[in-house]
Design a protein that fits this description.
Elements (H helix, E strand, L loop, with lengths): L22 H11 L8 H13 L3 H7 L1 H8 L3 H7 L10 E3 L2 E3 L3
Antiparallel strand pairs: 1-2
Length: 104
């Protein structure tokens, strides 16, 4: 399977009305993958590299990215601060029957 851009009107729009590259999702995936043992595919190496490049000052990076600025501007600075914390919880949500459940 391949992507033929001639078949689609593809564009990125920044802001609330369009698609935004989610840096926080990329770095979040990298944070999780970086804790896994084994050999990574190249598709996993990119998020890990993104996370590691921001790890020393993760909160500042989140505050400066598009989503972080938007959240802070809408009064959710505390959410951004919480998202910038690493290894502060020993619990994880589980996906069971299409819904998340508390770890039992």
């Amino acid at each position: 399977m391949y992507f033929d851009q001639r078949e689609y009107d593809v564009r990125f729009e920044w802001g609330l009305s369009g698609l935004r590259v989610a840096l926080e999702d990329l770095m979040g995936a990298g944070a999780i993958i970086s804790c896994l043992d084994g050999e990574w595919l190249p598709e996993a190496e990119t998020p890990v590299a993104s996370f590691r490049s921001a790890q020393a000052d993760l909160l500042d990076t989140l505050r400066r990215c598009g989503s972080g600025k938007e959240l802070i501007g809408r009064g959710f600075a505390e959410d951004v601060r919480l998202a910038g914390q690493l290894n502060v919880s020993d619990a994880a949500r589980l996906l069971v029957d299409g819904a998340t459940k508390r770890d039992v």
